C-alpha cells in the first residue's frame, strides 16, 4: 500500500458536486400517512403559499428591527426581534409539515418572493408608524389566508395541517398583531 495516498481519499470532502433534482417542487412522494394524494397536494400548495408569506414576514420583522428609530427604539427593537424569532419557528414548522406530507417546501428566499402575497417595502427607512403598519398589513394577509386554509384543509381530512395553522400560525399572528397595534395608539410619552 502506498503510504502517501490514504485509503478512501483520506477524508477529503468531495466538493462541487452536481446532480439532477430528485423531486421537483409541486410534486408529491407517496407516504403512508392515511391521507389521499389530492388532499396532500392541496395542503402542500396552501402551506407553501403561507410558508412564503411567513418567510417574507420574518424578513420584514428583521428589517424593521434593524431600522427602528425614536423614543421607543429600545422596546420596539427588542419586541420586533422576539416576533421575528417566533416567525422563524413558524417557517420551520410549515416547511416540515410540507415535507411530512410528501411535498417540497419552498426554501429559497428568491422563490418565496415569487410566491408571496405581501408587497415589497421600499429598500430604505420608513417612519416607525409606517413600518408597524406594514407589519400589521402582512399579518392580516396571512391571517386571512390561514383562516380559509385551516377550514378547507380540515374539510379535506387534513387535521394535522389545520391544527398547525390554528394553534401555531393563527394564535402567534393574533398575539403579534395585538402587540404591534398597541404601539400605534397615540398617547404622549411625557404629558399627563
Looking at how many chains there are and whether they match, the oligomeric state comes to single chain
The average pLDDT is 94
Shape: globular
Give the C-alpha Rg.
Answer: 21 Å
Helical fraction equals 55-70%
Range of strand content: under 5%
Query: How far from one another are the termini?
Result: 87 Å
Plain-language structure description:
This protein has 192 residues and is mainly α. It contains 5 helices and no strands. Helix 2 (73-100) runs antiparallel to helix 5 and helix 4 (128-155) runs antiparallel to helix 5 (159-182). The termini are far apart. 29% of the residues are buried.
In a nutshell, what does this entry contain?
The protein is an all-alpha fold and 192 residues long. The protein is 61% helix and 0% strand.
Q: What keyword list fits this structure?
A:
single chain; globular; 192 residues
SSE blueprint:
Layout: H1 37-67, H2 73-100, H3 109-115, H4 128-155, H5 159-182
Amino acid at each position: 500500500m502506498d503510504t502517501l495516498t490514504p485509503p478512501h481519499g483520506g477524508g477529503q470532502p468531495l466538493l462541487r458536486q452536481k446532480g439532477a433534482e430528485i423531486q421537483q417542487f409541486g410534486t408529491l412522494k407517496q407516504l403512508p400517512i392515511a391521507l389521499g394524494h389530492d388532499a396532500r397536494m392541496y395542503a402542500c400548495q396552501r402551506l407553501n403559499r403561507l410558508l412564503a408569506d411567513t418567510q417574507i414576514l420574518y424578513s420584514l420583522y428583521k428589517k424593521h428591527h434593524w431600522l427602528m428609530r425614536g423614543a421607543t427604539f429600545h422596546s420596539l427593537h427588542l419586541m420586533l426581534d422576539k416576533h421575528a424569532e417566533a416567525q422563524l419557528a413558524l417557517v420551520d414548522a410549515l416547511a416540515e409539515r410540507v415535507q411530512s406530507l410528501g411535498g417540497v417546501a419552498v426554501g429559497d428566499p428568491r422563490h418565496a418572493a415569487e410566491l408571496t402575497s405581501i408587497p415589497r417595502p421600499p429598500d430604505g427607512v420608513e417612519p416607525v408608524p409606517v413600518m408597524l403598519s406594514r407589519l400589521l398589513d402582512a399579518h392580516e394577509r396571512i391571517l386571512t389566508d390561514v383562516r380559509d386554509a385551516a377550514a378547507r384543509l380540515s374539510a379535506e381530512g387534513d387535521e394535522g395541517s389545520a391544527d398547525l395553522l390554528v394553534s401555531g400560525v393563527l394564535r402567534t399572528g393574533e398575539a403579534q398583531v395585538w402587540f404591534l397595534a398597541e404601539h400605534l395608539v397615540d398617547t404622549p410619552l411625557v404629558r399627563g
